[in-house]
Specification:
Structural class: alpha+beta
Distance between the termini: 36 Å
Strand content: 15-25%
Number of strands: 14
Helix content: 40-55%
């Protein structure tokens, strides 16, 4: 394989540095480290504490535990909490929970939960086809090609983002959870996912071999359909086969039957929801590493081959807040994603930069801003939830926010509260109805999007 000039240049620099005794850790360096550490009674006490306790237990800022305010000035009506268990389906739970809150309000339903397994089945089948067709489309490229390598590195996952919601639900509809419930493999997806990935990678190699042997497109497509038949079987055995039609009874708050009707998944969606998820909503992003008021598109970042790539408007955080507040005031929950693992206190259900004082514990500073954390792979969107509340001060400025999570019951009845400062630093994506867009944000949608590669570090699927 031909080495790049950059690789050769690095190799020469490394060899020169080694020859001069530079770049490695010397014994004198180690002696300096030991002297600087200076095992005082204080450092010994900290070591003993860390040796016997978790870092977060010792870094916990106890001053931040007092007077947690759980009141919100504006909140979207919602009821019940869902649990994605040991799976990466947060994006799916979030999208379905947004619709659930809407339907419960508009149709006065006392409770409703939509089947995650139903849409997850179709998601995994669509992603399998996306991979296999992607292999066919790139079959003439060498295996070392960056896109080919990316495809085989990412044949399928159970993570995702909003475009998966829009394409999936508009094509396949939805069903109540009573119609297609959870299974062991939907609650804990890793084994099924690993087997599907193994099957797809092997199938992908076969398709590339067949293409190299001169098989035409019709022959490759025919073989692909046979492969997808096997994928369908694996999914059906693990998740159950999705219903073509079903009967569902709508009940009132007293549990009495209101009506019983036959539905298809598509007709059920039209009856109780009807949202045009593809055309009436837009993804907003706060990525300070890229130019604001620009439209971006991520190549191959979709859940189905005939779906559409994830396209978003990059905006300053204050613009996004303005539209989020407008939606909440109008009683509309939103698809929201963030870097949920940063400074989370699960016992309180609180996301706050002041939850943990790592700097004082280790006598150092962690001072990167949001843009630097993105550039260095220190922070990115990792989890999707449903934004349902904001607490505004007397000047209509947000003090804190709340999301409905999909981790089951817990603090705040399964909700997470985040301070406005945490929102600034670790919020990334929000999907809003286009009617809440500011004129300036709406104008961005007329732009030709800038195409970004699928391996861009900011665009890993939310889990």
């Amino acid at each position: 394989m031909k080495k790049s000039a950059l690789f050769i240049g690095l190799s020469v620099s490394w060899l020169a540095a080694v020859a001069q005794g530079q770049g490695g850790i010397s014994q004198s360096d180690i002696d300096g480290f030991r002297a600087a550490y200076a095992a005082t009674p204080g450092t010994k006490a900290i070591h003993n504490a860390l040796a016997n306790n978790a870092i977060n237990a010792l870094a916990l800022n106890h001053e931040n535990l007092n007077n947690l305010d759980t009141h919100f000035s504006h909140r979207v009506p919602s009821k019940g909490i869902t649990n994605q268990r040991s799976s990466g389906r947060c994006w799916l739970f979030t999208g379905l929970n947004v619709l659930r809150a809407q339907a419960m309000t508009e149709h006065k339903l006392p409770k409703l939960e939509l089947s995650q397994s139903y849409n997850f089945f179709w998601d995994q089948l669509e992603k399998s086809n996306l991979f296999l067709q992607g292999v066919i489309d790139t079959a003439s490229k060498p295996f070392e090609d960056r896109t080919v390598d990316w495809l085989f590195a990412n044949p399928l996952s159970d993570g995702g983002q909003y475009t998966g919601i829009a394409d999936n639900l508009m094509k396949y509809g939805v069903v109540p959870i009573e119609v297609m419930g959870e299974t062991a493999s939907s609650k804990s997806t890793s084994t099924m996912r690993n087997l599907l990935q193994l099957r797809l990678r092997e199938d992908g190699l076969e398709l590339r071999r067949l293409a190299s042997e001169g098989k035409n497109s019709d022959q490759l497509l025919s073989r692909k359909k046979e492969m997808l038949t096997q994928i369908y079987r694996i999914l059906a055995l693990n998740l159950g086969e999705p219903p073509v039609e079903f009967t569902w009874t709508r009940r009132d708050s007293d549990g009495m039957a209101v009506d019983t009707k036959a539905y298809t998944p598509q007709s059920f969606y039209k009856t109780y929801f009807g949202n045009d998820l593809k055309n009436d909503y837009v993804m907003l992003m706060n990525d300070p590493t890229r130019e604001y008021y620009k439209l971006y598109e991520i190549e191959y970042d979709r859940h189905g081959y005939d779906g559409y790539n994830w396209t978003y408007v990059n905006l300053p955080i204050e613009d996004i807040k303005q539209m989020a507040i407008a939606s909440i005031k109008d009683g509309k929950a939103m698809y929201f994603s963030c870097d949920v693992g940063k400074f989370i206190n699960k016992d309180l259900g609180l996301l706050d930069e002041n939850n943990y004082d790592y700097g004082s514990l280790f006598d150092t500073k962690f001072g990167m801003n949001k843009a630097d954390r993105i550039r260095t792979h220190s922070s990115a969107s990792s989890h999707a939830m449903t934004l349902v509340a904001v607490d505004l001060d007397q000047k209509d400025k947000p003090k804190k926010w709340m999301v409905e999570n999909s981790w089951g019951s817990g603090a705040n009845d399964g909700h997470l509260i985040m301070t406005d400062k945490w929102f600034d630093e670790y919020m990334f994506r929000l999907v809003v109805d286009k009617k809440y867009l500011t004129p300036k944000a709406s104008k961005v949608l007329t732009q030709q999007p800038t195409l970004l590669p699928p391996w861009d570090p900011m665009f890993a699927p939310e889990e």
